[in-house]
Each structure stands twice: as structure tokens, then as C-alpha cells.
Amino acid sequence: MKFCKSKENKIAIAVALFVAALHALWAISVALGIGQMYLNWIFPLHFINNLYTVMSFSFLGSLLLVIVAFAATYLAALLFIWFLKLMKVKK
Fold first, then answer.
1. CA atoms within 13 A on the CB side of 33
2. Per-residue 3-state assignment (H helix, E strand, C coil) for 27-55
3. Domain ranges across the chain
4. What's this model's pTM, rounded to 2 decimal places?
5. Is residue 19 classed exposed, middle or buried when 0-12, 13-18 and 19+ CB atoms within 10 A define those classes?
6. For 21, phi and psi rounded to 5 degrees?
7. What is the pLDDT along the chain (91 residues), one digit of tens a residue?
8. Other C-beta atoms within 10 Å of 27: how many?
9. Which DSSP category does 57 fall into?
10. Which end of the chain is more exposed for a tag (fewer CB within 10 A), N or C?
């Protein structure tokens, strides 16, 4: 079980937890009814028209959002670390 305690695994988990937490925060904002207000505020700051409408909150949907965000980020972080090792990047 060397991999479970490896530095690479810990980094990937930390990054994935961070991204999952951001997605959980988004789900909470939708549940509280402030998701659309956030989009209406953030898009114009980037000089973009808001073409999106926030759908109604779904607990199962939000749970799936957080799980998929965690899993995808975990795999992406491991892949990124693997590529760095392939390139033999020095600290």
C-alpha cells in the first residue's frame, strides 16, 4: 500500500478535495437560491453576457456533481504528476 501513502497520492487528494469543496459551495448557493444572483454578478465582471439560467436544486444532482468533480480532479492531478515525472522536472 505504498501508493496510498505516497506524496503524489496526498497531493492529488488535496487538490481534488479543494475542487470538490468549490463545487459543494456552488451546490449550496443554488440550494439557498443565490446561484443565479452570483452568475448575474460574475459574468459582467468578465465582460460576458449571462446566457445561463440556474436550474432548481437537486440533492442527488449536487451529490453527483461533488463526487464527479472529486474523481475527475483526482485523476487529472495524478496524470499531471505522472507527466511531470516523465519530463523529469527538478524542484
1. 0
2. HHHHHCCCHHHHHHHHHHHCCCCCCCCCC
3. 13-84
4. 0.85
5. middle
6. -65, -40
7. 465 678 999 999 999 999 999 999 999 999 999 999 999 999 999 999 999 999 999 999 999 999 999 999 999 999 999 998 888 856 6
8. 21
9. P
10. C
